[in-house]
Amino acid sequence: MRDTRFRNGEKTSSRAIALVFIVLACAFNERLAGDSVKRPAEDGTRTPAKPEAVGPFAELPNPALLPDGTLAAFSISMHDGLQEVAARFSRDNGHSWGESQTLFRLPREAGGFGYFDVLVDRKGEVHLFFLCDANTGGALPIAAKQHSPVKETLDVWQARSRDKRKTWDPPKRIWEGRAGDLLSVVQLRSGRILLPISYLTSRTWAHRGTGFDAFTYMGTYDSGVLYSDDDGETWRQSSAALKVPTPDLGTIGGVEPVVIQLKNGRVWMLIRTQMGRFYESFSSDDGTTWSRPEPSPIVSSEAPAGLIRLKDGRIVLFLNNCRRFPYAYGGRHVLHAAISEDEGKTWRGYREAIRDLLRNQPPPADGDFGAAYPFPALTADGKVIFSTGVSTGTRSQHPAEDSGPMARHEERFLYILDPAWLCETHQKDDFSHGLDDWSVFGTQGVGLVRHPGKAGAQVLSVSKTHAEWPAGAVWNFPAGAKGHLHVRLLLNAGFKGALLGLTDHFSVPFDEEDRFYNLFNVLLDPGSAPVSKLDFGRWHDLDLEWDCRKRECRVAVDRGQVAVLSQLREAQIQGVSYLRLRLPPAATDSAGMLLESVEADVSPK
Q1: In whole angstroms, what is the distance from residue 481 CA to residue 376 CA?
Q2: What CATH code would you report for 19-424?
Q3: SS3 of the chain: helix, strand, coil, percent, to 5
Q4: Listed residue (195, 203, 239, 247) closest to 221, CA to CA
Q5: What is the three-state SS of 544-597?
Q6: φ, ψ for residue 447, nearest 5 deg
Q7: What percentage of the chain has pLDDT greater than the value 70?
Q8: So what's the pLDDT on residue 115?
């Protein structure tokens, strides 16, 4: 769950943005503007651009596509002591936005309103669904909630438009209790509106329940759905209480579900858990009843998914495919995106849609951080535009900076994703555009240096210059169960060894357990293959050709095969999508290695 303050729609946190962040945000916009330009491929075709940031927005924008092709970005803001719902509109598929227009005010006497979701129904009317704290002060920290005498309240409220969005009904409460964040709302082909929710129960470790529940722990939250069969006039709650097991006693269980209707009519739900993957449930009667949640094959840290169907029928998935970091049971450093042509059975892409802009800083002491909580919508030209409820670049590491006129300033962005970008099968980096495609945070001795033999060129140097600091680098490329990776490298004299890994998920560059979870490990150990075939001080071509169906990877040095590696574990459904480089943690290695270029090709199936 997010750390939330509901009175003014902001997060409860001391990590306000200082002036330095404004400089970072401007630099970020300039960089993204440059990266978003479609560059010609080697064969003369134009390749799809990586996700483009548009905005900024003063408040969290939640996008929606209106019937005439206009995009709307809804938000909550505070003016003169009252919360207002406003919208900005774009008529060029999200690239530029008009001024903010106030739509209506929220009732102050009801409490503080917070994070919300939006639906444009089959008649073109807009429904907004909010959480409201009923003047109880909003959400308590998760660690404190089981021991606090304060009753937590986050009711679900709805506001809806009339007359082609010209007027708005007064907001009304449609559910009472302590809900989790709202991440999804859909209208089914039958016309029924489904609003998936999660909610606090009375369950604790001391009172786990009866029957099988007494042998395990299902956390403090259940998931379910609200539904309406009259275009949002009245609402009912499904009797299904969907719960999942937890890995330890203090966790919350299954929360923040998202849903999508499949082509066969069934409704598919993905539930955020602390188990390292989404749990899934299905409904064959438009959400009235649901199957018991079971582990899905989709790995994720403790963060919610985003699901949206494209106009051509394919499904785009947003997720944090991150492992082995203490925050959120795997971290939220990277928000990934994938695409499926077979209703979620297989996925392509698994590319880094956005990453935490401040990943090179230590994480904050409190509050959410990273890139998570996606809110996707379609654009009229077939792309996906999305925001993130946990946004990048929103923390300050210096309490003294959390004051003054800039103390509460925070800029938000929308991101435009071209689905074609998720279907690419080739990626190359020669460091001519810098190091932004790599993750090297939390390390020392890793960075770009002048190419020793090419004027004006840069190479990546990986060395361990400090005994107490790790040295590693991580690179993402389009996922594939079968593919080829080419690395042009040079081992400096005195190089003491490194681990080169191929894997199917993100973990931090300093992950010391990656060797147990990589799909393939190449030990660059002096005196043993393949390093024995590499001369110090000379550039070599290292090629890795993997096939997860055969569970093997063929390793070649300078086009001569030197080893066939066995796959160490079962691959995720998408196959290999990451290159990892890490020097041993025990000693320093000031010599290290240089990378001139990396290039990956994967098969489309």
Answers
A1: 27
A2: 2.120.10.10
A3: 10, 40, 50
A4: 203
A5: EEEECCCCEEEEEECCEEEEEEECCCCCCCCCEEEEEEECCCCCCEEEEEEEEE
A6: 175, 180
A7: 86
A8: 85
The 3-state DSSP class for residue 523 equals strand
Q: Are 117 and 182 in contact (CB under 8 A)?
A: yes
CA distance 560 to 291: 53
pLDDT tens sequence across 525-584: 877 776 778 889 999 999 999 999 999 999 999 999 889 999 999 999 889 999 999 999
Which amino acid type is present at position 536?
F
CATH 2.120.10.10 maps onto the chain at 19-424
196: preceding bond cis by omega (within 30 degrees): no
Asked if the model's pLDDT at residue 466 lies above 80, the reply is yes
Task: Return d(Cα 567, Cα 77) in angstroms, integer.
Answer: 52
pLDDT value of position 410: 63
CA 255 vs. chain centroid, Å, equals 16
Amino acid letter, residue 82: L
H/E run at residue 261: strand 255-261
Q: How many CB atoms lie within 10 A of CB 510?
A: 18
Tokens encoding 263: 């082509």
Q: What is the model's pLDDT at position 237?
A: 98
Tens-digit pLDDT profile for residues 148-189: 445 679 999 999 999 999 999 999 999 999 999 999 999 999
CB 291 within 8 A of CB 283: yes
Closest CA to 597 of 357, 439, 437: 437
Q: Is CATH 3.30.70.141 the right assignment for the domain spanning 427-602?
A: no
Contacts of 210 (CB under 8 A, 6+ apart): none
Cα–Cα dist 208/215, whole Å: 8
Q: Is the pTM of this model over 0.85?
A: yes
Nearest to 248 by CA among 226, 221, 208, 218: 218
> Which pLDDT belongs to residue 46?
66
* Best CA proximity match to 573, nearest among 302, 300, 298: 298
> Which of 237, 228, 227, 232 lies closest to 177 in space, CA to CA?
237
72 within 8 A of 94, measured Cβ to Cβ: no
- Count the Cβ atoms, other than its own, within 10 Å of residue 47: 17
Query: What H or E segment, with its residue span, contains residue 335?
Result: strand 334-340
Among the listed residues 159, 75, 62, 46, the one whose alpha carbon sits nearest the alpha carbon of residue 110: 159
Average pLDDT over residues 466-475: 96
- Start-end of CATH 2.60.120.200 domains in the chain: 427-602
Chain segment 590-601, per-residue pLDDT in tens: 999 999 999 999
**H or E segment at 128?**
strand 126-132
Which of 526, 465, 522, 460 lies closest to 493, judged by CA?
A: 526
Sign of CA dihedral 547, 549, 550, 552: positive
Distance (Å, rounded) from C-alpha 524 to C-alpha 51?
A: 35
> Coil, strand or helix: which one is 506?
strand
Q: Is residue 54 a contact partner of residue 28, using CB atoms and an 8 Å limit? A: no
